[in-house]
Amino acid sequence: MINGNTELIAHIGYPTHTFKSPMIYNPYFEKLGINAVVVPLGCQSPDYPAFLKAVFTLTNIRGALITMPHKVVTVGLLDRVTPTVKVAGACNAVKRMADGQLVGDMFDGEGFVRGVLRKGLVLAGASAMVVGAGGVGCAIAASLAAAGVTHMALFDVNAASAMELADRLQANYGHIQVTTGSNDPKGFDLVVNATPIGMNDGDPLPIDCTRLGPDTFVGEVVMKNEMTAFLKAAQAQGCRIQVGSDMLFEQIPAYLEFFNLPATTPEKLRSMAQLQY
């Protein structure tokens, strides 16, 4: 029950009808008796910079979840950001520190990485291919670098986007070797589809899946269908896989830790979620 002691987590973006976080966090808060609530707040781009600052003048604000179209502009509105944010060029979580400074982090990639680690993939010293250098691809690449991947191949139909991401990775993670320009998945420990390909029936595959070896782990970010054509093709090659929705549920414990709230497991979150598709 919301009362005078309830803390707010603002979920800021536009439009709000696609927001799923309130249907995951709020049942969890209610079950554990946590006096907090995630509230969807629709804010269009011209109003957003002033609105973000205003939200953090509230005395009962715990933090903010940031979604489209504001993830990129948020970076320049904060006092401090993590290396993950610097590489991703985007931010999806903000909190106010005791000194009043606003600090941001990015957890899209963290959710992906936590998922593959829990499935047994060793990332320290591994090689990875990330197809797609948009927002989610940049976030995943940043988190893979932080997890110790030492060789990363980046591919995007916009070659400049892949090269710019490569430059940011090497500037922030000196240990990593980055290549661009090829989407041949042969020989990689991990291959990720970080593009929207697979959202619609009949979409082409993001890579030539016949080039996948059975030892390659394959991950997906598309959530519309759990088993996309890409994942089915990877399974046919004998690959282990991670479905797109795992990234969502795996990142929420990281958010909870960031906001200094009691964390839980993705399995418990799934069992309590009230998602509507």
SSE layout and pairing:
Layout: E1 7-13, H1 21-32, E2 36-42, H2 48-55, E3 61-66, H3 71-74, E4 80-81, H4 83-88, E5 93-96, E6 102-105, H5 108-118, E7 127-131, H6 135-146, E8 151-155, H7 159-172, E9 177-180, E10 190-193, E11 217-220, H8 229-236, E12 240-242, H9 244-258, H10 266-272
Parallel strand pairs: 1-2, 1-3, 4-6, 7-8, 7-10, 8-9, 10-11, 11-12
Antiparallel strand pairs: 3-5, 5-6
Q: In angstroms, what is the radius of gyration?
A: 19 Å
Strand content: 15-25%
Structural class: alpha/beta
**The named CATH superfamily of the largest domain:** NAD(P)-binding Rossmann-like Domain
Distance between the termini: 26 Å
CATH class of the largest domain: Alpha Beta
Series of secondary-structure elements, N-terminal to C-terminal: EHEHEHEHEEHEHEHEEEHEHH
Shape: globular
How many strands appear in the DSSP assignment? 12
Order of strands, widest sheet: 2-1-3-5-6-4
CATH architecture of the largest domain: 3-Layer(aba) Sandwich
Number of helices: 10
Compute the number of structural domains.
Answer: 2
What low-confidence regions span 5 or more consecutive residues with pLDDT below 50? Answer: none
Helix content: 25-40%
Mean pLDDT level: 93
**What is the CATH topology assignment of the largest domain?**
Rossmann fold
Major sheet: size, sense and barrel closure? 6 strands, mixed
Briefly summarize what is shown.
The chain has 277 residues and is an alpha/beta fold. The protein has ten helices and twelve strands.
